[in-house]
Amino acid sequence: MINLKTNAEIEIIKANGRMLAKTLGLLKERIRPGVKTKELDRLAEDFIRKQGAYPAFKGYRGFPASICVSIDDEVVHGIPGERALKEGQVVSVDVGIFKDNYYADGASTFAVGQISDQAQSLLLVTQEALKRGLEAASEGRFLSDVSCAIQSFVERMGFSVVRDLVGHGIGTNMHEEPQIPNFGPPGHGPILKKGMVLAIEPMVSTGSFEVRTKDDNWTIVTKDGSLSAHFEHTAAVTENGAMILTEDERI
Prior knowledge:
The protein has helices spanning 7-30, 37-50, 117-136, 143-156, and strands spanning 54-55, 67-71, 74-76, 90-99, 102-111, 160-161, 167-169, 176-180, 197-200, 203-205, 211-213, 220-222, 228-230, 233-238, 241-244. By secondary structure, it is α+β, with helices and mostly antiparallel strands.
């Protein structure tokens, strides 16, 4: 069942989403060669807790950190630790916020210093894919229209969308119905309705769409070792299209 949210519920998620956007902004300022991923985790947790919120990933299904930090071929769920960032890497940061009984979820991929032209193109294409997915998330359209908008653009640009991982509904639970694949034909699945709140999150690679899980049982990497990027927004379906909830309106 897909739970529709009231305007009041959406406002709570939006407040959490603004906090999430500020968290990502703080992390972006800190990302540079030599910084350990555990430092990013500590910075995020400290900031989130100071806002009276909780880092939603910490302890979620046993995850040991407050944020996910995934480097180069790591698609998602990278565990922060002693690794130091290096010049030329791309680093995806996924953040979850829980406050007032509601969740918000968002992610961005950042360049560490100067990156290759291919890596820069990957980031731009993935970010644009998210934008196109959001544009398709309007009342009266089909859920798979979002999926198709993402896949068709990504593949036209010569990259691949990861197929084993999906976006999701979100609200009082981190993961709710519906699942939102980043691939598929248009015109299928549920019809989008006002009050749906969706975490749309294209995950894109420069090579194959196939992935595998590392021995830590968390970190998911591209099977062929190709670079990956991940961008995500939580958004509400409205009569005027998708309203992004995970951005800082003052930026």
